[in-house]
Design goal:
mainly alpha; five-stranded parallel β-sheet; two-stranded antiparallel ribbon; binds flavin-adenine dinucleotide; binds ligand DLZ; binds iron/sulfur cluster
Length: about 500
């Protein structure tokens, strides 16, 4: 009897558990471009195009390997518009007895598939290093779920950068060496650029031109072979300085020494363990220093696995958390409206152009600003989910709701990631070309990050005053002259009022 095998747009891996379970001779793979997935948030057009191109190439690969694939294009007149609708339609068409699928990365779709009126079998997603059970076993009974300890277990489990039972070089974490400010010159040319599928670009431009984001030029890799080329190119040229400049930001330099592989990892075109093994091999061959290699491997087997563990442990209501009670609407600057803040303008402009921003831009510019300004975390979450080509809820939500907005009340972060303009000034050259003055703490030209930093601390005093990691901040605030504190709070309120009125602040 025929069985259907679902392959979603972020499950493009030949060793997907559903494919491994299936029978090539009798089962039918179902892949579908559907409006339901393409519009549940207003995705960046590059993200939609990337997904459709990669899905089409993957279907071609599967057919070449002997699979029978029922592929629905977005403009197919029979298209029902949802993944479950397509499964029901294909089940009737093929006379299928049921569906086998790999667990999706969003509760929304997990629930929809579970409620589908078809006999179905959901398998674990084995493309991760830690299973749900392993994460639960690690997390259960701990007061705090600190990534660092989970990461050490993943090092032991994978054997990556291990010297027997000791960490390579004697330390688990070389982050201290990874905070150099922006370099004067970047001597790595950034990601490889690949030719797109023009049919998909036309389709996406016809249907999604109202979405925020530039569709062209389109340069992403869309096959696993191309993604592998990009990885090799970056290991060769970008990895050696990745650690040093991981937190740096420069005007008109969106990529610096970053790997630009999150899209490919998350869509299934690259395997995380294999990626880390190649990066480790570069270290053993003497081609990259330990601080870079350890820093990179930590992001993948540490942070990436850890945030996934949190998403599934915390459940579907995680995205609705709002521990700090923030309720401001997302300002238009996030959708490209003019702003005098150069750091925001730079980060949003490159997001619009590339559907990409690197970690520190997401955390310490757009995320920091949203947190300081008290923006509703649900709106912030939707924005990040829409505008980045690597965004799926399992990875985006813990980074936004937890790490960036502290809306989960400290499950992920032990203190909020907030900073005044000083941090941005230290790590970038943004402030030099900004209409505001980062040195000014008050006054007409004061950097808004300076005003809002104290405003945040003051309005959340009851919540954070006893946090041992924030004592210093409150001591500095309390030592300031009262009139200065009053001026800062008044000017911050005035600035926020202008923001709410839609002024180009
Ligand atoms: P590099 O800087 O080269 O890092 C290498 C890899 O490490 C990345 O490709 C990624 O797979 C992994 N990684 C690094 N940091 C994290 C992290 N915090 N969580 C998970 N994986 C990590 N990453 C996503 O993949 N999807 C998202 O939707 C996403 N949203 C984010 C939202 C916010 C507010 C923040 C602060 C971070 C977010 N991240 C997200 C993490 C990180 O910013 C991106 O993974 C990274 O910028 C991708 O670019 P890169 O491939 O050049 O990464
Ligand atoms: C992101 C995305 C988009 C834009 N379109 C599709 C689609 O048409 N068909 C599909 O199977 N998957 C798509 N995806 C990826 C899914 O949204 C993703 O599989 C779920 O959000 C679970 O992570
Ligand atoms: Fe951003 Fe303030 Fe620097 Fe301007 S001065 S770039 S607003 S941190």
């Amino acid at each position: 009897m025929v069985r259907l095998v679902l392959v979603l747009g972020d499950q493009l891996s030949l060793d997907l558990s559903a494919l491994r379970k299936a029978d090539k001779g009798s089962d039918v793979v179902v892949m579908a471009e559907v409006m339901g997935e393409a519009s549940y948030v207003p995705h960046h057009p590059k993200k939609i195009a990337f997904t459709f191109m990669a899905m089409r190439y993957f279907a071609t690969d599967l057919r070449a390997q002997g699979w029978s694939v029922a592929y629905t294009r977005l403009d197919d007149p029979e298209n029902t518009g949802t993944i479950t609708g397509e499964l029901i339609r294909r089940a009737a068409e093929k006379g299928a007895a049921g569906v086998v699928y790999t667990e999706p990365g969003e509760w929304r779709l997990i629930d929809a598939l579970a409620e589908m009126p078809l006999k179905s079998h959901c398998l674990s997603d084995t493309r991760f290093i830690a299973s749900h059970k392993e994460f639960e076993d690690w997390a259960d009974g701990r007061k705090q779920l600190r990534m660092e300890y989970f990461y050490r277990d993943m090092r032991r489990k994978t054997g990556l950068l291990m010297d027997g039972d000791k960490p390579e070089g004697g330390k688990w974490n070389y982050d201290h060496d990874n905070r150099k400010p922006a370099p004067d010159q970047v001597d790595f040319e950034g990601p490889l650029r690949f030719a797109p599928d023009e049919d998909v670009l036309v389709l996406v431009s016809e249907r999604f031109s109202g979405n925020f984001g530039d569709l062209r030029p389109f340069w992403f890799a869309t096959t696993s072979a191309q993604a592998q080329e990009q990885l090799a190119h970056w290991i060769d040229g970008g990895l050696p300085k990745f650690g040093d400049f991981q937190d740096a930001m420069l005007n008109d330099q969106p990529f610096l020494y970053h790997s630009l592989i999150s899209f490919y990892l998350n869509a299934g075109l690259l395997d995380p363990l294999a990626v880390c093994q190649q990066v480790e091999a570069a270290y053993h061959a003497g081609n990259a220093p330990l601080n870079a290699v350890e820093g990179f491997i930590r992001q993948i087997i540490g942070w990436r696995e850890y945030v996934r563990g949190i998403y599934f442990r915390e459940g579907p209501d995680y995205t609705a958390r709002n521990g700090l009670g923030h309720d401001r609407a997302l300002p238009d600057v996030y959708w490209g409206a003019p702003s005098k803040m150069n750091c925001m303008t730079q980060s949003v402009a490159q997001t619009k152009e590339h559907a990409y921003a690197h970690h520190i831009q997401r955390l310490m510019v757009t995320g920091n600003f949203a947190l300081l300004a008290g923006i509703d975390p649900a709106h912030v979450h939707e924005w990040y989910l829409a505008v980045y080509a690597d965004a799926y809820e399992w990875v985006e939500a813990p980074n936004v709701i937890g790490m960036s907005q502290f809306a989960d009340d400290g499950i992920i972060a032990s203190k909020p990631y907030i900073s005044s303009g000083n941090y941005i000034h230290k790590m970038s050259n943004y402030c030099g070309s900004c209409a505001y003055r980062v040195q000014d703490k008050t006054g007409e030209n004061a950097c808004p990050f300076n005003l809002l930093y104290w405003h945040f601390l003051d309005r959340h005093r009851a919540r954070f005053k006893s946090n041992p990691r924030m004592g210093n901040m409150y001591r500095v605030w309390d030592r300031m002259e009262e009139t200065k504190r009053e001026t800062i709070l008044r000017e911050a309120d005035q600035w926020l009022a202008k923001l709410d009125q839609g002024a180009a602040v």
